[in-house]
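Retro notes (design track)

What went well: tokenization of the new backbones is finally stable.
What didn't: we kept losing track of which sequence belonged to which structure.
Fix going forward: every design gets posted as structure first, then sequence, in one message. First example under the new rule, 466 residues:
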């Protein structure tokens, strides 16, 4: 029904706003208020339906509700309506006709800081995903592709509808409820002869813990990942087990893939790759000057000539924010990276996540990558804690692997491990063990929540000399 709704909305000229079933009534009220949403179509999930009903009383623009596969008082029965509808479609004409620069799609980005922003795309957006699907995911004509993503996220647009269909491949929909089981995904790819796969780094970490040799994945020809960096040690383990290289990519809700490891390239483990065709990407310092090789800077897209394929039009109803990030012919991503001598880009972190300690500027990814090499660390997040002497000191929030227990001895062991793997000044002086990391509803780690909690934390950090 999701695909049916999306295509129908595009054809009649209505703005589609994908949303996850995880939204609460508060989330729904925020969205209806910001975008003047007039109708919600929901799945047959009582919790979701109750949340929509609760939100409607505080959402004056929300006039219509439709539910699939069931009947409910006060709701349109969409499944029944589809069965009765005419198979003929008359394309809107005149003022109702759609044009390339009309709003087609609106995403509420699940930001790691602040409330979600409204990113809007026009009718040229699907064409940009030819780059994503054909030239990064390397989908095959008459192949079968799977992207693991909730339909509420922009990642779904990257991997479940536009580019894949244009390139001639079918999308396999794996709809799982509850706990994610990597073995189920591997069996599904085996049984249905999946030819290309895209998943977040977290999924690959879980897959790497399986005995992959138990599955016949001979049909699988290509694997890609985006959304979070894939640690080099996880990459190498998967390459050894699958016999396939994992091709990383980078982009945002505001774009299609803008940096990637493409089929004609030899990937470097941990690198995002090189700029996409049609995207004039650079790394600049605080003065807007191109960075030297190995120098950290912000990823920007130069748009003086024209809007790159698949680039967003702006933040809906927020010209100030649009002008802050996109001005003088340059779009500022807010992401920090560096470029090596071969032109490959390496992710460092969000601008907001950078740590300034004792005069050093430290990105969270390089410390996280060092920590994750230790067998005790399942997941981790690196943040800065305010410190009168150093400005900030590095803190690691760690989820332990099964079989490990938190202890002072383990803290020391992890600190020494980081000192051996990377520059000693980057080691975490504070380590906190937790059951889960705080995340956005799209799964991104919310380091801002950790930072906010730590502003008033009573810690006794290791203050030995670097």
């Amino acid at each position: 029904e999701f695909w049916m709704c999306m295509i129908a909305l595009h054809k009649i000229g209505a703005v589609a706003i994908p949303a996850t079933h995880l939204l609460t009534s508060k989330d729904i009220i925020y969205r209806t208020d910001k975008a003047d949403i007039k109708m919600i179509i929901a799945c047959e999930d009582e919790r979701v339906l109750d949340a929509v009903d609760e939100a409607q009383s505080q959402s004056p623009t929300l006039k219509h509700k439709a539910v699939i596969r069931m009947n409910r008082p006060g709701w349109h029965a969409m499944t029944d309506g589809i069965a009765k509808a005419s198979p003929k479609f008359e394309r809107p004409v005149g003022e109702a006709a759609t044009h390339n620069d009309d709003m087609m799609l609106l995403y509420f980005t699940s930001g790691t800081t602040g409330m979600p922003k409204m990113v809007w795309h026009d009718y040229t957006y699907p064409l940009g995903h030819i780059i994503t699907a054909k030239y990064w995911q390397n989908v095959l004509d008459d192949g079968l592709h799977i992207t693991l993503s909730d339909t509420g996220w922009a990642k779904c647009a990257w991997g479940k509808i536009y580019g894949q269909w244009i390139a001639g491949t079918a999308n396999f929909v794996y709809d799982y409820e509850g706990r994610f089981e990597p073995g189920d995904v591997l069996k599904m790819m085996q049984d249905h002869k999946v030819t290309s796969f895209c998943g977040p780094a977290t999924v690959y970490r879980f897959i790497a813990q399986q005995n992959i040799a138990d599955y016949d994945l001979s049909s699988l020809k290509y694997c890609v990942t985006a959304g979070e960096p894939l640690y080099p040690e996880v990459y190498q383990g998967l390459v050894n087990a699958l016999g396939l290289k994992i091709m990383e990519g980078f982009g945002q809700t505001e774009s299609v893939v803008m940096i990637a490891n493409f089929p004609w390239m030899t990937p470097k483990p941990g690198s995002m790759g090189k700029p996409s065709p049609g995207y004039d990407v650079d790394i600049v310092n605080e003065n807007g000057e191109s960075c030297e090789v190995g120098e950290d800077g912000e990823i920007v897209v130069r748009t003086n000539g024209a809007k790159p394929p698949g680039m967003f039009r702006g933040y809906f109803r927020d010209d100030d924010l649009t002008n802050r990030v996109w001005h003088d012919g340059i779009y500022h991503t807010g992401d920090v990276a560096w470029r090596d001598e071969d032109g490959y880009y390496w992710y460092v972190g969000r601008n907001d996540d950078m740590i300034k300690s004792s005069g050093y500027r430290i990105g969270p990814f390089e410390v996280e990558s060092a920590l994750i090499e230790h067998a005790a660390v399942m997941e981790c997040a690196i943040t800065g804690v305010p410190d009168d002497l150093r400005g900030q000191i590095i803190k690691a929030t760690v989820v332990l692997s099964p079989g490990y227990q938190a202890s002072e001895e383990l803290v020391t062991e992890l600190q020494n491990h980081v000192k051996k793997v990377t520059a000693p000044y980057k080691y975490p002086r504070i380590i906190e063990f937790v059951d889960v990391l705080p995340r956005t509803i799209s799964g991104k780690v919310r380091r801002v929540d950790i930072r906010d909690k730590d502003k008033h934390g009573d810690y006794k950090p290791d203050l030995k000399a670097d």
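Added context from the reviewer: The chain has a mean pLDDT of 92.
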